[in-house]
Amino acid sequence: MTKLPHLHTVRRDWPYLAAPGDFLPDDQPAPVDQWPPLKLRWYEIRPQILHFDQHTGALTESLLEAVGAPAPVALVSYRQEPGARRGRWIWRCEVHVITGETVAADGFNFDCPTVGRSSTTRDGARQSAFDHITRQHPDAAVPYLGRRQSALRRWA
Fold this sequence. Notes:
The chain has helices spanning 5-8, 122-136, 145-155, and strands spanning 40-49, 59-66, 74-79, 88-93, 96-98, 109-111, 117-119.
């Protein structure tokens, strides 16, 4: 079991990362009937600038968990816009997509490009992120090895 330092300081009770042998290979996608049910739940955290948002100053305050996924599948942040009276609520997809086909020079997977979508309210951003995950990533809880590597790259 591996600890993800950047995630466990934000959410101390986040499950530890299982060993590589507990994950499925990326080049053999699981059939739809073997996917675990998608159980999504929001975690509210103390608003803070995460390590990968240092340059934007976005304050993350919500993480979306797909039970069984090694890392959050989406997050919601608030970012003050220069010169504006109010900031914007931003949601970002954090799903590492597994295709089973070579799509890039380094293999079978890629990070979802749906990043930086905004809303005027926190609830609107949360709902948009939730809808995106359920529509575009119904396999978000399938434990692929690439998702383990992505969690390490993003949160360790």
